[in-house]
Specification:
Length: 149
């Protein structure tokens, strides 16, 4: 049998059974062939490095979940916080600018309909500027991320 065929038989046997399960002729070949001996060492190193137990066990799952902070269920959350926050938000974003616009434009315009129209237009404009101030940076960031991807 040629050396190449003997090498391939030896390597196949080492892969399947390891060096200890080789028949006599293949064992002698392993002792004399440096390439096959190195191959056997690498196969044994791979077998030794493989963990015997699964990497993710139920015990590891329990440890990982116990390491997380507790989840708040918000059972003690006061019911009035949401309506109060909404009222404050509306007051700050609509009423205060509206009053400021009425007082400022009232000095220039004396017709109540014109004053109301200008105030509403001003509030819509402020709302648009506020939206742009929030949307434009986010949109630019998304475009930048899309171009880098």
């Amino acid at each position: 049998m040629t050396d190449d065929r003997l090498c391939s038989r030896a390597r196949e046997a080492v892969t399947e059974t390891g060096r200890n399960g080789l028949p006599g002729d293949l064992r002698r070949h392993m002792e004399s062939c440096d390439a096959c001996r190195k191959y056997a060492w690498s196969v044994e190193a791979l077998r030794d490095s493989r963990p015997e137990e699964p990497l993710y066990t139920p015990a590891l799952r329990v440890r990982a979940l116990n390491g997380l902070p507790p989840v708040s269920t918000c059972r003690n959350f006061p019911w009035w916080i949401l309506p109060a926050g909404l009222a404050l938000q509306i007051g700050i974003s609509v009423v205060v600018p509206g009053v400021v616009l009425v007082r400022t434009l009232g000095l220039i315009v004396h017709d109540s309909r014109t004053l109301t129209a200008l105030t509403i237009t001003g509030l819509i404009g402020l709302g648009g500027l506020t939206a742009l101030a929030g949307v434009v940076p986010v949109g630019l960031k998304l475009l930048k991320e899309k171009n880098h991807a």
